[in-house]
Write a structure and sequence with these properties.
This protein is α+β, with helices and mostly antiparallel strands. It is 57% helix and 7% strand. Helix 11 (265-297) packs across helix 13 (333-342) and helix 16 (415-455) packs parallel to helix 19 (505-533). The longest helix has 41 residues, at 415-455.
Length: 860
């Protein structure tokens, strides 16, 4: 009992303390666990190491654990209940060690309540609004999230010399569990296991098989029969499940402070960004729904739809070479009405709105991020100097240079080697992109072959709607190819990133994330780009069609346009992709955990022991967080952001589908983090990393693609030119529905059926602006074609410059940090200096009084 701390920490756990005086003769002796409990109270398990007894790396493990004890950590081994080969090493960090490393890591800790200065007007208005307005049902009550008082405290870097400045009500709860785990992880990363400057760190021991896993334990079960306490220590995992991860909380705001406390700032920022993105989707979804409803309500009154549905005598040219029957224009009446749902007068407005929305979303996220970094004490935090990757050290151990930050020699990658590896990686990226284009070309060939087969199919329904059947089956095949190639892309991205030999883990993650985004973005959107900008553009004309390999005639757009094919492609891929992602995120871990429990029950391991598993073994049986960390989560949402913005002019319901998916996604991710995954190491971060730059790039690309979709894919520009130049209202100078009277007839050219040699006679119509066969220049482009082309090019230029100008102006108007936050930060800095000075002065006065009394008593 009288051993100093370092000797107790270094004492072997098995057997007991035989070296203590009188230990063997004391009949009331205690075992080691009782001794620690008496001296240090109830221990918190801050970290868990897992290894196999059969592992040959005994010496490295022994040296590593010996050095951990020398650093002040307390270790205890315990065998697994369900597997005799598994051993758990429970790590506890005592108070003295916590204080020492908290000071080294400059961890900010609370020392006094915040008192914000507000004038009497703000106070009065706040009280009136609070009393008049009803309670927001989306907000969580304070009673629902107890024990979060320290978020309202001023903080300062911890110092043992000024420990009296900090409000330490309870040593056991002063450092939160996430802070304790972060300190222990910091020590694990910097403890040696062999002699040598690079022979250190738990990551290397995990890579060489010394340990099977290393993770901080959960705080208990996520389910409990006991109600949530309102005072004292509590199970934050159970609190997160009840107030966040349950499906019944889908309409509530997320408890970001509690998420940050339990999982760390990096994961907290992800959920903050995801919640902000979901909230910003609400106005976009409402406007998109309004545009869709406008098209729905005006569908029957649309002049273009009326003319198509009433064209009983207009014969369309055959769409294929063989076995095609002549169809009347009014047979595409349904397609014309459906096209009007997405291609109407609100399309241009919605495209401009979404471009501005993307800018507002990103600019206001920067403000939101600034508030979070202030509330979470990340303003002055900087990334720690990362350790080098073992692969990098092994490759370049012979070449060294002095690190400009640490001043120590470290391995160095020469520039020629780095450049050559980067060129190989870039070549691999272009090869994979060419593979994507090859897959798209294969789908195009399928559509050409299926077009002829469906047009001559025996079933009347398929023969009548052969274009819909061709597009639908093509989309499904394309989706299966996309999901298959994603597996290949991930392996190739791993290979190329490892080939580059990045210096640190963050550099590896950024490089891998960029490759995965490029691969999946091209994979998902290449077929959509083909339908939007190439389908039907190079088909030719009747009698002179262009053919692929001189065999298959190129596909044409439907008489109602190509926009319906684009909508179908986007809708199917977006819905199926999100459903697949949701299954892989939650369904796959659920199946894995269920199978693990089933194997244990089948082996009779739990029935044999008839005891419940300890928490660390339950965590061991959960699924580890994937190697990519949050990359898969960000990648899924960023690709969805691309679907929501890039082709939104063709599919205004995309924001609504994204909103519905994200409401489910937040609870799926929450349930997965709380119940299905081991607790990840609470990491810190100040932003979302490389993904912000990718989102900005998508915003720029969205303006360009929407301009081309409106100008080229939709019929907005041809209708506009006809209404002002060729329609019956040219003298009035404005456009109405009656101004489009005769538009369908103007947009269809005439062809002589006898020139086909298929036994037909008479004339048929096709979509184009060409001269009739009886003119002096038959089948040449008319003047209206050049007017439409010029209007399209002019619209693209004007639209892009206008939207980019508005985006830049809005970005200039919105500051990155709110003004009241700047004032709060300056005031807090001033108050912290004043309070530190007053606390130091009070401490000196108490010391003087104490010394004065002692001197007075010693004088006689």
């Amino acid at each position: 009992e009288h051993l100093p701390l370092n000797q107790v920490a270094q004492s072997p756990i098995q057997p007991g303390l035989e070296h203590c005086q009188g230990w063997g003769n004391n009949p009331n002796r205690m075992n080691f666990k009782d001794l620690l409990a008496k001296r240090y109270g109830k221990k918190r398990i801050d970290y868990i190491l897992v290894y196999k007894k059969s592992s040959p790396q005994v010496e490295k493990r022994s040296t590593f654990e010996k050095n951990l004890r020398a650093e002040g950590l307390m270790l205890e081994r315990e065998p697994a209940v369900t597997n005799s080969d598994i051993m758990f090493v429970k790590i506890h960090c005592p108070w003295e060690t916590l204080c020492k490393y908290a000071e080294r890591m400059n961890i900010r800790m609370p020392f006094r309540k915040k008192c914000y200065y507000t004038d009497w007007r703000s106070k009065t208005m706040g009280r009136l609004l609070k009393s008049w307005l009803p309670r927001n049902p989306m907000k969580l009550d304070k009673e629902a999230l107890p024990d979060l008082e320290e978020t309202d405290c001023y903080t300062a870097p911890f110092s043992r010399a000024r420990i009296h400045h900090f409000t330490i009500n309870n040593k056991d709860s002063f450092f939160s569990n996430s802070t304790r785990s972060r300190i222990v992880h910091h020590m694990l990363q910097r403890t040696k296991y062999e002699d040598g400057k690079s022979k250190m760190g738990i990551n290397r021991l995990l890579n060489n098989g010394t340990y099977e896993a290393a993770f901080p334990p959960h705080e208990g079960s996520h389910k409990s029969r006991h109600p949530i306490k309102t005072h004292g220590a509590q199970n934050h995992r159970h609190l997160l499940y009840e107030r966040w991860a349950r499906w019944g909380m889908w309409y509530k705001y997320q408890p970001l402070d509690l998420i940050r406390r339990y999982f760390g700032e990096k994961i907290g920022l992800y959920f903050a960004w995801l919640g902000w993105y979901t909230g910003m989707l609400i106005p976009a979804a409402l406007v998109g729904l309004f545009v869709f409803l406008y098209g729905l309500f005006t569908m029957d009154s649309s002049q273009v739809s009326k003319e198509i549905c009433e064209a009983n005598e207009t014969i369309m040219c055959p769409m294929c070479e063989r076995n095609c029957t002549l169809q009347k224009l009014n047979e595409s009446c349904i397609y014309a009405k459906v096209t009007h749902l997405f291609d109407n007068g609100g399309t241009v407005f919605f495209a401009i709105f979404m471009a501005i929305w993307a800018t507002v979303f990103l600019e206001f996220w920067k403000r939101r991020r600034a508030v979070l970094t202030y509330d979470w004490d990340l303003i002055d935090w900087e990334d720690e100097e990362e350790e080098l990757r073992p692969q990098f050290e092994a490759k370049y151990s012979q070449v060294e240079r002095v690190n400009p930050i640490t001043g120590k020699p470290e391995p160095f990658q020469p520039f020629p080697d780095k450049l050559s590896r980067l060129m190989v990686s870039v070549s691999g990226i272009f090869f994979m992109i060419s593979l994507v284009l090859t897959a798209v070309f294969a789908v195009v060939v399928y559509r050409l072959v299926a077009m002829e087969q469906f047009a001559s199919f025996k079933w009347y329904f398929i023969k009548k709607y052969w274009q819909f059947a061709t597009s639908g089956t093509g989309v499904c095949i394309n989706f299966m190819i996309i999901m298959s190639l994603n597996v290949v892309y991930e392996k190739v991205a791993y290979l190329l990133t490892d080939l580059e030999h990045p210096r640190t883990e963050s550099e590896w993650e950024n490089s891998f994330a960029l490759k995965m985004f490029l691969f999946q973005f091209v994979n998902l959107n290449s077929s959509i780009f083909y339908i939007a900008f190439f389908l039907g553009r190079f088909a030719g004309r009747p009698g002179k069609y262009n053919k692929l390999f001189n065999r298959w005639r190129l596909e044409e757009c439907h008489p109602s346009g190509c926009l319906i094919d684009l909508c179908l492609q986007m809708g199917v891929i977006m819905v199926l992709k999100q459903m697949w992602n949701n299954f892989m995120e939650l369904g796959y871990p659920l199946l894995q955990n269920w199978w693990s429990r089933r194997k244990m029950k089948r082996g009779g391991q739990l029935m044999e022991h008839k005891i419940s598993l300890p928490q660390w073994e339950k965590d061991w049986n959960l699924q580890p967080m994937n190697l990519h960390g949050l990359m898969d989560e960000y990648l899924e949402m960023v690709l969805q952001f691309g679907f929501t913005t890039i082709f939104v002019a063709a599919f205004p319901l995309a924001p609504l589908l994204a909103l519905l998916n994200n409401i489910i996604e937040i609870r799926l991710d929450a349930y997965k983090f709380v119940t299905q995954w081991r607790r990840p190491m609470p990491a810190r971060a100040t932003d979302i990393g490389i993904w912000y730059g990718i989102l900005e790039g998508i915003g720029v690309l969205a303006v360009i693609t929407n301009a081309f979709v409106i100008a080229i894919t939709s019929d907005y520009i041809p209708r506009f030119v006809y209404a002002y130049k060729y329609g019956p209202c040219t003298d009035q100078g404005y456009r109405q529905e009656k101004c489009l009277k005769g538009y369908v007839n103007s947009s269809l050219s005439v062809f002589d059926l006898s020139e086909l040699g298929m036994g037909y006679s008479g004339y048929c119509r096709y979509r184009d602006y060409r001269a009739p066969p009886w003119s002096s220049t038959p089948y040449e482009f008319t003047l209206q074609f050049w007017h439409v082309l010029a209007a399209r090019l002019a619209f693209i230029i004007v639209f892009e410059h206008l939207v980019f100008g508005i985006k830049s102006f809005i970005a200039y108007l919105i500051p990155d940090m709110p003004k009241d936050l700047c004032d709060r930060m300056r005031r807090e800095k001033y108050l912290v200096q004043e309070m530190m000075y007053e606390a130091e002065l009070e401490h000196l006065q108490r010391e003087r009084k104490k010394n004065g009394k002692q001197y007075h008593h010693e004088w006689p």
